Amino acid sequence: MGGDAFTEERSAEVVAASFAGDERLRRLLTGLVRHLHAFVREVGLTHEEWAAAVDFLTRVGRFSDDQRQEMILLSDVLGISMLVETVANRTGGGETEATVLGPFHQVESPPRELGDTIALDGRGEPCLVTGSVRDADGAGLAGATVDVWQASADGYYDVQQPGIQPERNLRGLFRTDADGGFRFRTVVPRYYPIPTDGPVGELLRATGRHPYRPAHIHFLVGADGYHPVATHLFVADSPYLDSDAVFGVKASLVREFRRVDGPDPYRTVHFDIVLRRR
Ligand code: BEZ
Ligand code: FE
After folding, report:
1. Does residue 39 sit in the same domain as residue 78?
2. Which of 62, 103, 230, 257 has the fewest CB atoms nearer than 10 Å to its CB?
3. Coil, strand, or helix at residue 212?
4. Residue nearest to atom 6 of ligand 1 (CA)
C-alpha cells in the first residue's frame, strides 16, 4: 500500500494504488473507485443516504434467489444491462442488434418443427412469424438455432401463470431450413410490467417511473462459427416503445405486425437476423 495521505481530492488515487495482481481486475476496480468517489464528492453523499443505499442493496441481494434475480433487474432499470450489450456489440456493421436477455428464459424451450405453433392454448390474435438467419454477406445459415419466447396476449409469461397457461406455452426452439429460413405461428404478445414486488419496484415508484415493457418476442439465435445474439422483435403499434422500463428498444428491431384480412384474419411479421462471424 502507498503511504499517500487520504484526502478528498486524492482519495481515488490512494485506493487505486492499493490494488495489485491481475491487470484487468486492477483496471476494473480502479475505474470503479474513480467513478464512485467522484459520485460521492459530486452529490455530497450524507451518512443517511449512504446507509439507505446499503440497506437498499442488501434487500436487493436478499430478494434474489434461483428464480428471481433482483440484482439483474436493478441493472436493467438503471440502463446498465443495455449499456453492457451496446458496448459488447460495438461492431458498427449490419449485424442484428442485441438487447437484454431478461429473466424469463429460465426454462428450456421445447424443440419444434418449422411452421408449428408455439401458442398452446390458442388464446390471442393469431400471428405468423417468418424470417431468416444470415451472415453479413446475405448468405442464409442452414441449421441455425432460433429460440423464441414471449408473453401472452394478456402480458404474462407461462412461468408467471402456472396452472393457468400450459407449461412451455409461447416458447419454441427451431432450426432454420437449407436457405436459413424459419417460420412459426403464435399470437401477438402484449406489453407487460416487469416485476415490481421487490426493492426495484420501490425504486420505480419513488422516482415516478412506470414498469412497462413494450410488446416483443425474444429471440436467442446461434450458428456454428458465429456469435450468438439475444435480441427482440418489437411490435410497432405497442404502447411504451418510447419509454421501455429497461431501455431495451432499438429502432432496428421494431417491425409492423401487418394485418391480413379474410375469413380467418391474422397478423404477420418478417424478421431477418444477421449474425457476426467469430
Ligand atoms: C423481459 O423482456 O422478459 C425482461 C427484460 C428485463 C427485465 C424484465 C423482463
Ligand atoms: Fe420479455
Report:
1. no
2. 62
3. strand
4. 102
